[in-house]
Amino acid sequence: MRVQVDFGLCESNGICAGLIPEVFDLDARDDLHVLSPDVTPQNETRIREAVRQCPRQAISLVE
Ligand code: SF4
């Protein structure tokens, strides 16, 4: 599985980046980047938490 962000929905509030900064990064211009899209046993719990907490429902997991 990997992380997919709908950048049309994302409002760059940084919630996901705060939860798991090695996967999500907000740059100086408030553009969100997915640094590492692969879901692993090590990051899956926190990625799912970011999916849950994103107020725009912009993050999804795809096969
Ligand atoms: S939590 Fe959602 S809206 Fe906020 S920066 Fe991440 S993807 Fe964008």
List keywords for this structure.
63 residues, Alpha-Beta Plaits, two-stranded antiparallel sheet, two-stranded antiparallel ribbon, 2 helices, 4 strands, 24% helix, binds iron/sulfur cluster
Fold and architecture overview:
The protein is of the alpha+beta class and 63 residues long. The protein has a single domain (2-62), classed as Alpha-Beta Plaits (2-Layer Sandwich), CATH 3.30.70.20. The chain is 24% helix and 22% strand. It contains two helices and four strands. It has helices at 15-19, 44-53; strands at residues 2-5, 24-26, 32-34, 59-62. It has a two-stranded antiparallel ribbon. The chain has a two-stranded antiparallel ribbon with strand order 2-3. Strand 2 and strand 3 form a beta hairpin. The chain is globular and about 30 Å long. The model has no long low-confidence stretch (mean pLDDT 97). It binds iron/sulfur cluster. The site of iron/sulfur cluster has 14 residues, from helix 1.
Overview in brief:
The protein is an alpha+beta fold and 63 residues long.
Which ligands does the model contain, each kind named once? iron/sulfur cluster
Could you name the ranges where pLDDT drops below 50 across 5 or more consecutive residues? Answer: none
- From the spread of the alpha carbons, the general shape counts as globular
Order of helices and strands: EHEEHE
Determine the mean pLDDT. 97
Give the % helix.
Answer: 10-25%
By CATH, the architecture is named 2-Layer Sandwich
State the domain count: 1
Could you say which structural class the secondary elements and strand pairing correspond to?
Answer: alpha+beta
Largest sheet: 2 strands, antiparallel
Distance between the termini: 4 Å
> Helix count?
2
